[in-house]
Amino acid sequence: MNKLSQKERVVSLGIDLLLLLIICAIGFGNLYPPVGDSGFWFYTALLSVLVGSKIVTPFYVKPVDAISYSVPAFVSLMLVNSWATWPIETKIAFFSVSALSVSILVFALLAIIFNNWGDEKLQEISNKIRIFLEVFAKPQIIYTPIIIFAMYSYHLGKPNELILISIAMLLTVATSAGDVIVNTFNRIRKTTKIGQRISSIAEIAAYQQPNIILLRQIKDNDLPLKKIVYVKDKYSNSKLFLTLDLVGRDNGVLTRAVEIASLQTGQYKELESVVANDSVAVIEDEFLQEICVSENIDLTQRDSVVGIVAPDSSIERLFFEVVDNSNIEEGRLVTVIVQNKKVLYQIVGGLTKEEVVYQKNTYGYLRAQAQQVGIWNEERRKFTQFSWLPNINAPVYLEAQEDYVIEPDTIGHFPNSNYQVKIGNINHLVTHNTAILGILGVGKSMLAIELLERMMSKGIKVVCLDLTDQYSTELSSYYNAPYEETCLTKLRTATEQDRDAWQENPEHGGSLPNLKNAFFEDLEEFINNTDGHVLKIYNPAEFVATRQDRAPGSFQSTPGNWQRGAPLFSVTPVEITKIVSETVLEILSAEMSDNAKVCLVYEEAHSLVPEWNSVVAEGDKHATSGTARAILQGRKFGLGCLLITQRTANVTKTILNQCNTIFAMRTFDDTGKDFLGNYIGRDYAQSLSSVKERHAVFFGRGSSCENPILMKVNDRDDFRRIYRERHRPPVFTQVDTIPVPEEQPSEHDMPF
């Protein structure tokens, strides 16, 4: 029975008192019993029960209340004490009733004393006594034995009075007639009011377990879609369903609905009483709002339902039947409630399907596919993977569109949302290698430049091999151009020194040995200095050095004129890449490190580290192997690479397979998709041909998300504005240019 308000309890008390007055008029000829022993049951006991249970302590009894009940009860017994004239049976009854009051009084006093004693054990005993008193110190428990004692002692020889007093006790103590009347009136009033706020419009045509029912309209008016309706099921709890779409005809239009909540049994008795079994009713919006608030249902979500979970879904992959196609697109986020958790998925594709329903009737629908993103952790601002799958036919909600608010540590966001994507660990981005793959003009270089700026702000030095000369412009704030031009001049000078000179030892022939030494000196100074230089940029095509591949031999230049010499070959950009990579590894190998120290950037990597079948010169195969070996060995010394290419098939897989973090942008070639499918999954890989500009599938150890995701990368200008407010580029001090040593004359040029 529902708890009554204070006003309702006063009314209930008045009804019980009126019943008592009627009973007294019938039994005693007056509206109230006579004063004395004959009225003891009424004035002392029954009134105390009614007032105490309805006004003073209607819900629970405290130890103080127990004292206020037990003391008057004991005193009233003492006032009617006729011990000398009572027979032995009455004395035993009197002693038992008095003992109950005294016991309650003693327990109440002990509870108060123990609670204030300060000892934990005594306080624990006090708490147990308090629980005991909440049950046995109620006025009904204390005063009902007194009423029975009065009936035995003073009314035993008067059957009419015994019957009337028993009826009075039954109607007021055992079951309060006032409470019953007040509750009945409330239910009638609520039922009448609820009946005016609902209308039955459909009946259940079929069940599609779990969670789906088909509704057949019983009126001419249409059943609106995206409408929450009340369904009374005679075999289980009543439920709230959301109408989804029209699915056919069967003696009327059939509407499909999905369950969104199961109502608690007995909580809506008035509503259940006015709706027939297996019927569907539309509830007035105001009343529906009250129910949804009580059941913790978000009414606004009904408009965001776009489908229901379809068969073949798994932990990683979600298939759902689309019921609202108006705002769905690739990359959007959808939500499914799994084990009371909000799990997000990202749409990666879809297809049309058709099923035969009956004879020639068919049912066509859209089936969307999404990949699990995880559960959003608001405190850590990242997604964590959820290790279970949703129930079939569970509703799928489309996440609302939000404006992206860029923050310094975010590299992008999920399309049409403010769910942000971050770098999980900047050191892992370097030491475990990163690749940015995609066709020309989709934003690869801008993404790479942002990543490099983040690395340099954390103290990681960058050696960039750039055939495009773009990085020196975009990263001009980190690039000390006057100083670096002096360094490049030394390298160019080294390529000219001994350019045409051959040696008996092929390793010393040509200008390549001088260039290697110059690279070592330049990189050693760069890596080990602490004067703020964090960016070194080389264009491998700029250094046209010569090398000697074999030992010299004798040849006849003209008849009878023998000479000795060896051919010299030009060094390719691939070989320059090998020299720089191996030199950096040699410098760093003096000390092992778990943190990243240097990142090698291979821009246009298909030209710097080509696959064996894509090389221009035969020596490039050996050079690419040397570069790959340096990358493989570099992690333990804090060395890694950032590889950028538009031709995945033409880049050596030895390095590409070592890239633990992947940014996959728009790609058309099947070779690239097949390769990426092993990293980001076949579903994301097949969608790469339709990925928009400045969008990328991001996955790997460098990501803050545990699963592959499709994200929109930051706008370059927005990133610079936000990021450089917190991370200022270095300020370079004015330094003298490094003097270029004059070329010493060779002994062949001496005049003597």
Automatic annotation (TrEMBL):
The keyword Transmembrane applies. Residues 411-475 form the Helicase HerA central domain. Keywords: Membrane, Transmembrane, Transmembrane helix. The chain crosses the membrane at residues 10-28, 40-60, 67-86, 92-114, 135-156, 162-182. It comes from the Bacteria. InterPro entries: HerA-like (IPR008571), HerA_central (IPR002789), P-loop_NTPase (IPR027417). Coiled coil: none annotated. This is Helicase HerA central domain-containing protein. It comes from Marinomonas primoryensis. The lineage of its organism: Bacteria, Pseudomonadati, Pseudomonadota, Gammaproteobacteria, Oceanospirillales.
